[in-house]
Amino acid sequence: MAKKERTRGQKFLRFLLITFPIICIILGIVFVGALKMVERFPEPLKQGFEQYLSETTQTNASIEKIESFAFIPDVNISFKNLKLHDRSNAANISMQADHIAMQLPFWSVFFSGSNLKNIKIENMSSENGVLLPLAMDGVDLSIVEEEGPDQFGSFIKVTGLYGGQPLEAEVQIQKAEEGYKIPSDIPFSVKLGQSSLNGIIQKNIASIELKNAVFEKANQKAEAREFHLLKSGEYIINNPLSCLIIHGDSEECNQYSE
Length: 258
Description:
By secondary structure, this protein is an alpha+beta fold. The protein has helices at 2-39, 42-57, 106-110, 240-247, and strands spanning 60-70, 74-85, 93-105, 115-116, 118-126, 136-147, 152-162, 165-175, 180-181, 185-192, 195-203, 207-217, 220-221, 225-231, 234-235.
């Protein structure tokens, strides 16, 4: 009996140390080869993306050109002239963008990492409720490096119109060995019309909180406060950030400046 158990143990160790790594290497080679084959045929890729976007958004999606698409060593995707057309009236475009590009480390995508190398959106517009509750127009988003004296570090910056009001927003991210990392504590600022909000978004295991939030409108500035954005899987709307997203620069948000 002991001899049988020892033999089973030896077989298991042989599988774990020799056979299993060889299988993983072979599967890895096949997987990478398959991804490389996919990259060589952009037209079917474009049609696949258009079909996926059409089904998920209940529109007719069109992409003028996939400028880049790669999986290895990074997931690198770039679209030119993306449009979502209303199914009942193709002339009605519910969302469009001149250019969308994103580059992420391969393993970060498949293992839910928080690293990225690049993200850029140019001249994006959308109707109410398509991407966010209010309409967006002429929105640009990119990563910017600031070297002082007023500001230093790496930021994701957004400009354009939101709900018909001028929008300026920035989120501070961290420089990493390869690209950037979104930290667990994220300093940010938003200026929308006459309203402004500064604070820190803190990501925890079971919640997302808004720390040191200072809301200001028409020169009326509130003391720093704390709010929940997400708790036990439920989105919380009773906070100044959600108010700006849902109602824009409106009277509904005045309560947070008092």
